Every structure is written in structure tokens, then in C-alpha cells.
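User: Predict the full complex structure for these chains.
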Amino acid sequence: MSNQLITPKTLSGFMELLPSEQMQFEKIRAVLEETYRLYGFYPLDTPVLESSDVLLAKAGGETEKQIYRFQKGDNDLTMRFDLTVPLAKYVAKNAGELAFPFRRYQIGKVYRGERAQRGRFREFYQSDIDIIGDGSLSIRNDAEMPSIIYTIFTKLGLDDFVIRINNRKILTGFYAMLGLSDRAAEIMRIVDKTDKIGREKVADELRELGVSEEQIGKILDLMSLKGTNSELLASLRAIPSENEQFCEGVDELEQVIAGIAAYGVPEKNYSIDLSIARGLDYYTGTVYETTLCRYPEIGSVCSGGRYDNLAGYYTNRKLPGVGISIGLTRLFFILSDRSCVSTAFTSPADLLVVPMTDDPEPAFAAGAAFRSGGIKTQVYLESGKLKSKLNYANRTGIPFVLFIGEDELASGKYTLKNMDTGEQISAEAEELIRVIAGYVRKKESVSVLTADRAEPAEG
RNA sequence: GUGGGAUUGGCGCAGUUGGCUAGCGCGUCAGGUUGUGGCCCUGAAGGUCGUGGGUUCGAGCCCCAUAUCUCACCCCA
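Assistant: Here is the predicted structure of the two-chain assembly.
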């Protein structure tokens, strides 16, 4: 009979969590969501499936190979591979109904049919915010994005991160000045890999592309400019250029950097980095990439940028936007892998009501009373030994158990046991609610992450 | 798509140059303790060693094939 069983398995590249891990994940997710709301973004939920012609309007090359696409009847369907393209469609479709600038956040699963790898998933959460303008959108929005990221990461308990910022106009303008406009996109893709493969290999790849030694030298010199943000801006200013795009890029970058400072983001958490370019080619100006300093090898956990014409595939209306996307699944994976996520307080409830008599009704009444007092309450409904009931509270981490037996029914008071301390008190519901609420509040005030104290595990 | 590693009770692993009844830790269940958990002690259940062939007196171990997982490359969150 056992040979007829089907092995319970989860597909490679699909993350599935145990209950306490899921609680941790949800806590992080809640921080993101709260923060987005705090900054005045609308929630948005678009379908996981879209018509292929809609989703693949801009795709091509590598992207297309990694897409989940299939036929159902006469429909050609594709699973979304990011949240930005569906947003572009949504805004184009509903432009008449929306108030611009349109600010939305979306936390949702996306799908990429690439080979799974450490920290790389086929199904993963992206957590996006974007601001879309009608006709135009102030560059100041480009400065707001990093400030939101800063707020979120700080709330999570991370402080050792850098939001790296560049502007693609600087790169495209610069490459144009070198007479390399025709290969700008490829050059950016290569340059973007510097962190990973190093200067030498970047030079090799550029050489293969047919870029001359002199040009390579200049490209490498530009991207390896070092210094503080103001020093870097000064260096850029010092580059003699008549190229309009280049100058515009430097202007924009300067405004964005000034804006981020004005938003109160500490200097150590953001910096100009002329080597980041982003692979996706819909970015037209500001680009961001965020790395955790303790874990540089995992790459970017959050990236995005400015796109002037993403909705251009769907409408003639000009709808420029700027957005940023947190790779929530990857962020969670790496943080819990490094034991940085606090395992404290992942229980689904604050109170477990345990009936000690055959009559469950007093327990139901107690459950209702504590819930209306704001206490997350479960009533234990199974028969069995007290030992296994208490053990259930242990396993799930429920911090309080309420006993309702002969004694309690006779006295009209409940017995409340604190599972951490073992301490028991006897009182009426109202008082016990205060005790539980106070205890729970204290426990919940602990930061979601313990990253600051954790040593990065070497592997 | 290209390379490397792995697959042994629910989970994590050990298993020597091929040799008796395949072990360990965690977990589960029962008891020690019938309204008081975690710790401890005792005991029990649970395995066709991924699958299919082959070599051998004998295979968890060697050979071939295959599946799945995993790490890395490409690309990306």
C-alpha cells in the first residue's frame, strides 16, 4: 500500500515555509506594507496570468527564455515575471480613472523559469513601489524612493546597507561621446558585472565587443571613480563634455543625491556608484541597487530606477515613472539562512484556552471574551492528557494557557499560566486580558531582525 | 542550455579495503508523573539504502543507465 503513495514534494525553486518561518516572513512583509501605506501608496493586485501579447510586449532575448508561457484553449498565457510590466499595462488601461501622480505598491509573486540556485527562486515575491506621472514626473520622486527603502531597512533592524545610485543618461551620454552609441546597452550590461567578475574580465569582454583599448580605458576610468558623493559629482562635472544627455544625467544625479540628503537618509546608506547600470533596458535615468554590506556576495536585494516610457507599448500617452523593487523572497532567504531573523514570538496566538471538564461551553465563552479584549485566542478542542495540551502550547509558542476546570467554574475566576515563567495567577477575564496584553506588547517590541548582533556565518 | 556534488526511518546525518540482525542525533508515541509543559530517565514504533539493470558466493558500498534535488556558470530580485 505504501508503494501507491505519491511522494509529497515541492518543485525546485519554489519556497515553502514551516509555520514559524512563515510567521517571520509575514512580519517582514508587514513592515514593508505598513511603510508603503505610511508614504501614501495605494495597494494594487494584478493577475498572476496575463495574455502573452500584453506581458511580452517589451520582452525579448534572455527574458523570453525564462518565461512560463502556455496555451489554454485558444489563449496564449504568460505568468508575470515582474510587477512593473503589469503596472504599465494597468496604468495605460485605467489612465482615465487614475489621479496622477499615481502611487501604488504591490507585493506579489512573480515567476521566472530559470534554473534554481542558492537564493534564486522560480517563484518569488517582489515588493514594488512605483510612482507614475502624467506627461511628466518630477526628479524629486527619484529621491523619495531611496528614502522609503532606508525607512524599511531601518525598521527591519538592518543598518549596514548601501543604496547605490547611478544615472543611465551619464553612461549613455558618455558612451556616445566615445562614439559607442550603437553598443551602449551591451556595454552597460558588461560594466554592470564589474563587482562580480572584476575589471580585467570586464576589459576582456569589452574587447570582444570590439571596443578599442583607449575606449576601454576611458570606460573603466569613469566607472571606477572614487570618493564621496560630492567629490564624485565634482569629478563628473570636470569631465569636458558637450553631450547633452551626459550633462542632463549629471544634473539629475546631483538633484537626486541632494534630495536623498534632504529626506534625512544618512550618508553611509547611499552612494553614487558609476558601475551600476541594471540589465533591463527600460530604465532611462536614475538606477538603484541596494546591497547588504555584510553579504555582498548575494548581490542586490532591492533595485529599480526611472523609466520614461514603459507604458509606450500600450498607449500614446506619455506616462513616465520611477520605481523600486525589493526581492522579498531573496531578502528573507538570506537573512534567515544567516540566522538574522528573530525566532522569538512566532506563535499564532497569545492564549490557549484549555477546558478541563467535558463541557466545552465555558471555554468557548472564555475564548469569545478574550478575543473581544483583543487577545489572539485559540481554544483547545481535543480530548487527551493535560500534558499534551501544554505541550501543544510549547510547540506553537503560545505564551499563555487558561485553565477552565471544576475549581475555576466554582470560583468564577480563571487560572492563567505563563508558559515562559511557569507562574500562575487566578483572576477574572478583564484583569487577565491586561496581563496578557502587557506581556505580548513587550515581546512584540523586539526587532524583527537580529542582524546587528549576528556574525555572518562563513560557508 | 553547460558543468560539479548529492540521494540511507518524518528531519539531519554516519556507515571503514564489498561481509552476520544497516546505526546515531532530533522528532513522534507510551510510561516514570490521573489538574500542570520544557529538563531528565526507561521503553516502543518507524528503513524494499532514489529508481532500473549489471559485476560478485555476497552490494548501502563497485560499474552502467535514469530520475530528482542541490551548488555554480549564463542572466537576474
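Chain A has two domains: 19-337, 351-444.
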